[in-house]
Amino acid sequence: MKVYFNILLTIFTITMALTLFLTTHEPAPQPSKPVFLDKKPVPVSRGSRFLQQQDRNPRAADHCHRDNEICNYIMDGRNTTCCNNKCIDLGYDDDNCGACKKKCVFTETCCRGKCVNLAYDKRHCGWCNHKCMEGGFCIYGICDYA
């Protein structure tokens, strides 16, 4: 029993000595300025990705000034009209559906210039121009659901 007590006392003494040494040990002095400031910055040759673009966005800041011919030229002959000084495709734009400033309701989408509910319209079931079979129904955007 005396041997076990001496072993435990020795382990306790060593543990206390290590604890005192580690807690009173002073850390290494810190340099006065950060290490990364000694290094020279690497030159960056990359510019803005917008400035590097060669092809111009066809809809970017094009003002049609109420001239539909400009819109047909800019939009590659698609069915476009000048609305609010911008070229708009009236067949599929939810904010200008069929006519300028004619907005579709939140639950509807513009298909072929008409506001339709894609969840229940059997001519536009789920997406524009997706027809259900004759006699079928469109429910939740799926033809003949359930």
Automatic annotation (TrEMBL):
This is Stigma-specific protein Stig1. InterPro entries: Stig-like (IPR006969). Keywords: Signal. It holds the Pfam family Stig1. Belongs to the STIG1 family. Residues 1-17 form the signal peptide. The keyword Signal applies.
